[in-house]
């Protein structure tokens, strides 16, 4: 499903870039009502479409599981009838076949499990089921960010379709579909993370069985691992494209203390975790503003990928991330660090010092 959903997302992105009317561009600004987010953020037809497709398919395959996902039917309805119709049309076009094992998207209405507006809205709202009754602490919960890195998606740049499975609050499977991230080196070039020769990459990991990647269009799974490196002159860090999402100034101060000389790779979405997992980057610093509370869908898939590739992911206190609290991580999480593991404590110390001094 993640592969086919990534193809659908890629097609929607290409339609947006090519269309003068911006068919899949921003349809609503999602408000930060409780002050724990980044403020108003864009949501597109693609965000709603991919969520409806994936959750609809998973619900048929695993009827006893629940879900935590980013978008809601309320947001879509608020965007107006035109947006609703655009999403329903896109879901019809890219409808995932009702049996997950078929791993196919079938555009024929006969094989679509989501055939009308009500069904699309219901599929979207499955994303709230895993947060109820503390379900995610004890049950099987799928965590989805349908378009992780919406601003990158809208620029025609990097984004990810991010899906994880929690069992009793612990990530046991992580999948990332990165349609604009090349399957082979070089993944990105330059400080702005521009693409080069993109074919798309699918990452996946299963707890205890390692991490893997394959080209999105074809090819075999290849086991990936972090690069065991401790030479500051060769270390590569990756960070958010948007300075509003992660402090570039604190990261730069930490990089100076670490004596890193390579310019950072900046990109949207959890593809950053993918770069660390396959050794093209060694450090990912996530440093949001004070008061921000992390959503679990922004890290669940990526964190298990790095860990199964041999790396380490913690908060700035050095603690593992707790995904069992519902849709959010703990308010105590003031930042996240992912590394190749061998230098994690060293980087963490310098990062904390830099944060306290800036």
From TrEMBL:
It comes from the Eukaryota. InterPro entries: DPNP, Inositol_monoP_metal-BS, Inositol_monoP_superfamily, Inositol_monophosphatase-like, Inositol_monophosphatase_CS. Mg(2+) binds at residues 70, 145, 147-148, 298. One of its GO terms (molecular function) is metal ion binding. Its cofactor is Mg(2+). It catalyses: adenosine 3',5'-bisphosphate + H2O = AMP + phosphate; 3'-phosphoadenylyl sulfate + H2O = adenosine 5'-phosphosulfate + phosphate; adenosine 2',5'-bisphosphate + H2O = AMP + phosphate. It is an enzyme of class 3 (hydrolase). Keywords: Hydrolase, Magnesium, Metal-binding. GO terms for biological process: phosphatidylinositol phosphate biosynthetic process; sulfate assimilation. Pfam families: Inositol_P (PF00459). Its EC number is 3.1.3.7. PROSITE patterns: IMP_1, IMP_2. NCBIfam families: bisphos_HAL2 (TIGR01330). Belongs to the inositol monophosphatase superfamily. This is 3'(2'),5'-bisphosphate nucleotidase. It comes from Octactis speculum.
């Amino acid at each position: 499903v993640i592969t086919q959903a990534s193809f659908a997302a890629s097609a929607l992105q290409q339609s947006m870039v090519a269309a003068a009317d911006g068919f899949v561009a921003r349809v609503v600004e999602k408000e930060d009502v409780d002050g724990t987010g980044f403020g108003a953020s864009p949501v597109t037809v693609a965000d709603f479409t991919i969520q409806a497709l994936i959750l609809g398919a998973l619900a048929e395959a695993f009827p006893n599981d629940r879900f935590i996902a980013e978008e809601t039917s309320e947001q879509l309805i608020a965007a107006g009838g035109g947006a609703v119709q655009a999403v329903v049309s896109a879901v019809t076009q890219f409808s995932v076949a009702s049996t997950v094992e078929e791993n196919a998207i079938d555009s024929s209405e006969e094989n679509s499990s989501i055939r009308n507006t009500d069904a699309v809205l219901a599929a979207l709202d499955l994303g709230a089921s895993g947060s109820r009754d503390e379900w995610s602490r004890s049950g099987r919960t799928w965590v989805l960010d349908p378009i992780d890195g919406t601003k990158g998606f809208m620029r025609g740049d990097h984004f990810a379709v991010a899906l994880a499975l929690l069992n009793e609050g612990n990530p046991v499977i992580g999948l990332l579909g990165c349609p604009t991230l090349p399957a082979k080196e070089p993944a990105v070039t330059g400080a702005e993370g521009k693409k080069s020769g993109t074919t798309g990459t699918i990452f996946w990991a299963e707890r205890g069985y390692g991490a893997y990647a394959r080209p999105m269009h074809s090819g075999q799974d290849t086991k990936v691992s972090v690069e065991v490196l401790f030479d500051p002159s060769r270390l590569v860090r990756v960070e958010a494209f948007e300075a509003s999402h992660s402090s570039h100034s604190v990261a730069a101060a930490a990089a100076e203390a670490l004596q890193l000389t390579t310019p950072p790779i900046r990109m949207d979405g959890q593809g950053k975790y993918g770069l660390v997992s396959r050794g093209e980057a060694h450090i990912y610093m996530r440093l949001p503003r004070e008061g921000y509370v992390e959503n679990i869908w922004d890290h669940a898939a990526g964190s298990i990928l790095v860990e199964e590739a041999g790396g380490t992911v913690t908060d700035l206190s050095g603690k593992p991330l707790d995904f069992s609290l519902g849709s959010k991580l703990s308010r105590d999480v003031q930042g996240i660090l992912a590394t190749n593991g061998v230098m994690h404590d060293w980087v963490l110390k310098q990062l904390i010092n830099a944060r306290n001094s800036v």
